[in-house]
Amino acid sequence: MITIRDHQTGDLFDPWDHLGGKRRQLLERSWASVFRDYLLEHLPVGELITRFSRQLGRPTKDLHMVLGALILQQLHDLTDAATVEAVAFNITWQYALDIRAESDAYLCERTLRNYRQWLIEKGLDQVLFRSLTDQLIKAVGTDTSKQRLDSTAIQSAMRGLTRLGIIVESISKFLRELRRFHPALHAQVDPDLVRKYVDREGNACFASTKPSESKRRLPEAATDLLALVTQLRGTTALELPSFLILDRVLSEQCEVKNDPEAGPQVRVKEPNEMPCGNVLSPADPDASYNAHRGVGFLVQIMETYSDVEDDPTGTAPPPPPDLITHVAVGPMNVHDGSSLEPALADTDARTIKPEVVLADSHYGSNENLEKAKHQGVDLVSPSMPPKGSKQEKLTLEDFELDEHGLVVRCPQGHVPITTSASADKLQVCFEEATCAACPFHKSCCASAVGRKESRYQYTYDRVRQRLRRLHNHSDEFKERYRWRSGIEGTMSRFKYQMRMASLRIRGRAAVSYASFLRALGLNIHRVAAYKAALE
């Protein structure tokens, strides 16, 4: 049966009067007061009601208390056992959750796990973050017209594996799962495979393979992988998640060719033939790879900011805190630029869409600028450096252009002999003799290969990029863009204060759950600090 306490009606006698003035004051200045006053009564308990009957079954725990405990667990990065202990004995937790009855001061670990699984299955982690963050924004009056966007890499609790290790662990996981759910099919598997990959005893088992021998033994493991997948592909083993991983590893790591005489033959792919989104570990098949950031997941975060300087005298009241408004977890091999539109759509649906967004150059493509402008958002983002600038080559930014984008003069002051413009590109030509005598001849973008004159062609989009790059050096742009660096501090607190850099979980769903609730926890900490500064 459903149990929901009334957390709005006050008591005739204060249940926390026994704490005394000092301890009560500490509670009211802490995160517990923020959670109790602003969030507890707004928890979306109605989303869980459909799982229970109003007449039948044992009484549930107070749904406000259970949802609150799950949020506080992520806020403090506690294990299930530590969370149960905190609910039972921690006065701060009991004050935050408004636990008044003895029966509500206990929560078993299994109940905690069940509710957490329900939240993940129904996507309520996103609902909790969005609804409660919006409530905090209203409570403290945070201005959402100015926001900034960035991303950070998060790694789940998975072990790094070599290519041989990925195949070996995938086969081992599948054979163990097959033995558990389909013992009849497991009995048909070659006992030598079970010995090598599960028991890992005797000769030729991969557990004793030295790193220097890994490359040599990789084709042997690939052959075993192909034989296992071929044998069980048409059976009920297809229902096992580990078989899907096994089949995916085979397609990503190997190339299978059918020989009319010898049958299917397997070839191990070269590293440059493999995709970035390949399975890195059967323990976490959702994780992906990025050459710059490593392995794991990419978390997009957008937060509010204020461009008002701090009062040097310290007499003015503190401004409302910056709060995280948007969180999204995705694969590591997706470019940041594709995350701007979903962030704007999310905040627009909640009526907190910004008017100005600061972001780094990965978000600042011309296409994103047009999309943001179409939605009434001013995207302030520097353009990527021009190709060749790091090699000290001349680029379009070094030439003088007229208002139509045509070249008027080169960096050495030479005037072109002809300029032209078509529907999709522009062109400039210089005298070959003049260019040959120029000191920048080798680094110039104009070329005379197979022609009598030096020619340089560029697009209208390139002209717009040139204007942006020149504007990036202006004082106006630098003054607006300097506030973007503040989100780096948010990323640091998100990863280290909220302990996202040392997760104990695996899988995209679990990482998303932790990301949403710990971002909410960081917002709670910031509002608590703001309330303390007001006193």
UniProtKB/TrEMBL annotation:
<dbReference type="InterPro" id="IPR025668">
    <property type="entry name" value="Tnp_DDE_dom"/>
</dbReference>
<dbReference type="Pfam" id="PF05598">
    <property type="entry name" value="DUF772"/>
</dbReference>
<dbReference type="Pfam" id="PF13751">
    <property type="entry name" value="DDE_Tnp_1_6"/>
</dbReference>
<feature type="domain" description="Transposase InsH N-terminal">
    <location>
        <begin position="47"/>
        <end position="117"/>
    </location>
</feature>
<feature type="domain" description="Transposase DDE">
    <location>
        <begin position="410"/>
        <end position="527"/>
    </location>
</feature>
<dbReference type="InterPro" id="IPR008490">
    <property type="entry name" value="Transposase_InsH_N"/>
</dbReference>
<protein>
    <submittedName>
        <fullName>Transposase family protein</fullName>
    </submittedName>
</protein>
